[in-house]
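ESCALATION

Customer reports they have been waiting on this structure for their group meeting. Please prioritize. Original submission:
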Amino acid sequence: MKVYVINGPNLNMLGKREVGHYGSGTLADLEVLLRERAVGQELVFFQSNSEGDLISYIQALPPASKVIINAGAYTHTSIALRDALLAVQADFIEVHISNVYKRETFRHHSYLSDIARGVIAGLGFQSYALALRYFLEEQGE
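Update from on-call: job pushed to the front of the queue and completed.
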C-alpha cells in the first residue's frame, strides 16, 4: 500500500512558528515518525505553500489513493482543493496538528471534512500517526 502525506502552506515552518500551537517538531521529524510506523509500507510526502501546486499534485494521484492531508489554511478557504480530492476520488483523512476548535472561529469550518474518511485534530503529530494507523489496520482486515 502507498500512502500519500500532503501538507499545505506554512507546514514547512513547523518547529519555527507558533510552537504553542504546533510544537517544536519539524516537518522532517514528522516524516521520520511516520516512516518508523509505516511497517514496510510506502509513504510519499509532499508539501507546498502554493494552492495550485497542491491541486496539481492531487490531480496526478492514482484514483482512490490513500491520502493523509493537512491542507493548512486552505482547509478553510479552498473549494478548488476539495474539487481536486473529489475528482480523483481520494480516500483521505484530514488531519490538523492543533485543535482548530480551540482557535479562531474562521478555523472551525472545513471545506474538506464532509468528504473525508475522517478528521483527526488537536493531537500534534499523533494526528498523522493515527491516520496512518487507520489505513494500515484497514489494509490488514
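Sent to customer with the following note: The chain has one domain: 2-140.
Escalation resolved.
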